[in-house]
Each structure stands twice: as C-alpha cells, then as structure tokens.
Fold this sequence. Notes:
5 strands; globular; 20% helix; alpha+beta; 2 helices
Amino acid sequence: MKNTLNRLLEFTDKCRDDMHEPDEQGISAEVYGEVFDNAFGDSPDYGELVVALSTEEGDEEWFNLATLIALARMAVLPNNDNARSNKFGRNAKTNKFKRRK
C-alpha cells in the first residue's frame, strides 16, 4: 500500500491537493480491465480493473482500482469543522464517515 501511495503522490505531484480538474494540469486517466480484484497488482495484463494515469509528456503509471479504493478507505481526513471544503467527517465511535450538512 505504501508503494502505491508513494507512486500516486509522485505522479500527481503537480496537481492540486483536491485533484480538481487534473486534465487542466496535464494528467489524464483511462480504466482498463473487467475483474474487480487486486490479486495481480497493477499490471493491465491480467484483466483486473486498473487505472492508467498519463501526462502530456508521455509518462504513464498504472494503479489497480481495488488497491486505490483500499488506500482511500485507510485515509484519515482532518476533522476541521471550519473547513468549507471538508463536507465529510469520521465518527469517532463507529469509525465511519458521514456527510455533514
């Protein structure tokens, strides 16, 4: 997981933190595959759903979609009630997210 996170952060280093309009920052994405699993890693050769990120310069990096979702599930978001952009908060008792009004 740490390797996936480091590769993702490095590849998207020039993008906004919220990843708003990455296409305007030179990054595009395509999804390949049919099987929603992460048994074979990031390779597109096994039919698993993978996301190919590419830059206008021709750089490309592959990420398994199930692994990206697992990584997002482990994320700890700041609990800042004053942040207008943070509309979700983690419930300390259930460890689940719920939408804030």
